[in-house]
Amino acid sequence: MARDEWDPRNLPDLTGRAYLVTGATRGLGYFSCEQLAGAGAHVLLTGRNPNRLVLAKEAVRRTHPDASIETLLLDTSNLGSVRAAAATVRARGRLDGLLMNAGIVHPPKTRELAGGHEKVFATNVLGHFALAGELLTPLAAARGRMVWVGSMATSLWKHLPTDPDLVEGYTPWRAYVQSKAATTMLALEADRRLKAHSVPVESLVAHPGYSTSGRTRGIRGVNEPTRLTRFVDNLQAAFTQGKDEGAWALVRALTDPRAEGGSMYGPAQLARGLPRRATPARLTRDSGLSADLWRACETATHVRWPFERVRRVAS
Ligand SMILES: NC(=O)c1ccc[n+]([C@@H]2O[C@H](COP(=O)([O-])OP(=O)(O)OC[C@H]3O[C@@H](n4cnc5c(N)ncnc54)[C@H](OP(=O)(O)O)[C@@H]3O)[C@@H](O)[C@H]2O)c1
């Protein structure tokens, strides 16, 4: 297979590997779990709602009756929940990959807080920053990988997280785009720091293009769009894809043995298509701004990634 070729419907055999996915109860997170489980991986579906987790688990089993899956409560807007889930994962053992997908995609109209921080930033960014730091040890033990989920919106709107809590100038769209810029910046900054400390974990970023539920097959309890949503989403068919297809880039970043730390994956035609190497928006590649953001996340979460300790244990 040529270097940039990848068949998302024919993944490598992932038997014996374990992956954790946040926001696994619907959308891209659910379909990532389905695809990973179909390739033989053990998949840890995480989410904030126990009922939705049961429905998602049942749905994966309907598609892959022999799937090796378990569920775990994890609310990324709540650092206590993140710490508790991470402790459970560390106790359970092997972890080859972490897919940080959970997110608020329709932010509240006015600014809200979670744990003292702007809610979209807390949910999409801070929770994942803390989770990845808390799971660095098992990831390094497996010489594993973490994937952060960005968005093509970061190339179209220049909302950088210079004021992450949006004390001034909150708008729902700004909160969303800056959270996706932040995840991309943290992915690249994590990769720089992991390499600098010789920690055997890769950090990548992926984006799903424009993926809508109305262009995705119906799944009981997981994807049940209204007829109006189906109608509207189908009007946009020329430049959108289903969430199952959107998950392809995320899963490739997580499992392609040739993918490298610091790289990005997204659909070939930007908004849709087969998963290919992509280029992060120029502003998200600013290492100075990213280092500032890293320190802000450390302060906000009280989590310092244990690079030195992990390097000593892994070497
Ligand atoms: N769809 C796109 O075109 C697109 C484009 C660019 C980037 N993305 C990114 O891809 C990711 C998934 O998007 P999607 O389209 O699949 O969205 P979605 O269908 O709305 O699914 C979002 C998932 O995140 C979960 N979630 C939300 N808040 C959470 C919290 N506090 N703790 C834990 N889980 C939480 C939801 O759980 P519940 O079921 O409990 O609500 C749900 O499972 C997001 O990070 C989004 O920014 C999507």
Question: Your description of this structure?
Answer:
The protein is of the alpha/beta class. It has a single domain, classed as NAD(P)-binding Rossmann-like Domain (Rossmann fold, 3-Layer(aba) Sandwich). It has eleven helices and twelve strands. The strands form three sheets. The protein has an eight-stranded mixed β-sheet with strand order 3-2-1-4-7-8-11-12, with helices on both faces. Strands 5-6 form a two-stranded antiparallel sheet. Helix 1 (27-38) packs across helix 9 (243-255) and helix 4 runs parallel beside helix 7 (172-196). The two termini are 33 Å apart. The protein binds NADP nicotinamide-adenine-dinucleotide phosphate. The site of NADP nicotinamide-adenine-dinucleotide phosphate has 30 residues, from helix 1, helix 4 and helix 9. NADP nicotinamide-adenine-dinucleotide phosphate binds at residues 22-23, 25-29, 47-49, 52, 75-77, 101-105, 123-124, 149, 151, 180, 207-208, 210-211, 243, 246.
